[in-house]
């Protein structure tokens, strides 16, 4: 397994789609294909996706302003929530109606934030919880002691191997709650790998991570791809998206509003609009130029902020030093 150097830009996967990049575009080798997926809460359509394909063997970012429906879509695809309508397949198998634990067994896992309860377990115990197909889950085989003791030691061996890769092996007996924010994120990812997944879904992997651990987390995500896994992640950190994503899917108000490679997508007016949608207090028409009128100082400031937010910068390199990630205008 080769690792990516923090100083270099990672090698991007290209040629993932067929035809023009647009919402719902077909992929050469999709791992997820979703159709007509909707989820309503009260009167609000949180997810309203006509057609979506997630490419295999690539890193895909799911971005969009707060409330766009990203987490709800994650929950639906992983069987943690039920849609009002829709069908989807994972690796060619129909998944709607399949409960979360089966989805995970089929090779589609998502990371979870460490809850209070999981924080009271040790790092190693957390890892063991991530293992699939444990003999103890089967009543008959759980009665045969040699079977489960052998499996227990295999699971522990695998857990220690993965923990060593994530430099968490020396913390195996510590309570998970004692880890730093970044170490927790590493543990969440490490735990997901216990089941040898085909697709890893990460919910805001960078949230709350100290800059010292940023590069390590990025490298671990890039390594998942190098090992042949597909990655789908939700993230608000646009520098990270630009740096490691091969493909970007943009959601706003429940819909997919743009798709493409990170550079093209972040210059798409629909994407800029989607982000503007979260700043309801400013006259958006004036800001985007749809309505003629004098831009107020506040609007100018907002526009600059959004340029920065969607990554309209010259530099594609991600630096662990946040100072170096300041946009140049
Ligand atoms: N269980 C729920 N009950 C009611 N409304 C919900 C529920 N879950 C989500 N919503 C609403 O659905 C919409 C989409 O929410 P969701 O959390 O999926 O957005 P998101 O894109 O993940 O946002 P963020 O980036 O802030 O996490 C929001 O308006 C949210 O308030």
TrEMBL record:
InterPro entries: AAA+_ATPase (IPR003593), ABC_AA/LPS_Transport (IPR051120), ABC_transporter-like_ATP-bd (IPR003439), ABC_transporter-like_CS (IPR017871), BCA_ABC_TP_C (IPR032823), P-loop_NTPase (IPR027417). SUPFAM superfamilies: P-loop containing nucleoside triphosphate hydrolases. Residues 32-278 form the ABC transporter domain. One of its GO terms (cellular component) is plasma membrane. Pfam families: ABC_tran, BCA_ABC_TP_C. Keywords: ATP-binding, Nucleotide-binding, Transport. It comes from the Bacteria. One of its GO terms (molecular function) is ATP binding. This is ABC transporter ATP-binding protein.
């Amino acid at each position: 397994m080769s690792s990516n150097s923090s100083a270099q830009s990672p090698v991007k996967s290209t040629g993932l789609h067929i035809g023009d990049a647009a919402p719902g575009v077909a992929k050469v080798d999709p791992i997820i294909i979703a159709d007509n997926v909707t989820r309503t809460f009260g009167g609000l359509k949180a997810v309203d996706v006509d057609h979506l394909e997630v490419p295999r063997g690539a890193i895909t970012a799911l971005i969009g302003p707060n409330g766009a429906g990203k987490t709800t879509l994650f929950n639906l695809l992983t069987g943690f929530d039920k849609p009002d309508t829709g069908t989807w397949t994972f690796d060619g198998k129909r998944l709607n109606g399949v409960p979360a634990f089966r989805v995970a067994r089929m090779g589609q896992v998502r990371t979870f934030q460490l809850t209070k309860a999981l924080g009271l377990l040790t790092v190693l115990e957390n890892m063991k919880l991530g293992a699939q197909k444990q003999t103890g889950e089967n009543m008959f085989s759980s009665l045969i002691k040699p079977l489960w003791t052998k499996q227990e030691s295999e699971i522990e061996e695998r857990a220690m191997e993965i923990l060593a890769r994530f430099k968490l092996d020396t913390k195996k007996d510590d309570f998970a709650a004692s880890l730093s924010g970044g170490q927790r994120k590493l543990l969440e990812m490490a735990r997901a790998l216990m089941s040898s997944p085909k697709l890893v879904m990460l919910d805001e992997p960078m949230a709350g991570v100290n800059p010292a651990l940023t590069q390590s987390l990025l490298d671990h995500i890039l390594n998942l791809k190098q090992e042949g896994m597909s990655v789908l992640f939700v993230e608000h950190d646009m520098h990270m998206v630009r740096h490691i994503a091969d493909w970007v899917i943009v959601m706003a108000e429940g819909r997919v509003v743009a798709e493409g490679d990170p550079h093209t997508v972040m210059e798409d007016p629909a994407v800029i609009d989607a982000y503007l949608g979260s700043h309801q207090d400013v006259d958006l028409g004036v800001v985007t130029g749809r309505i003629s009128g004098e831009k107020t100082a506040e609007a100018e400031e907002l526009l600059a902020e959004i340029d920065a937010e969607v990554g309209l910068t010259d530099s594609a390199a991600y630096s662990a030093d946040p100072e170096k990630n300041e946009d140049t205008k």
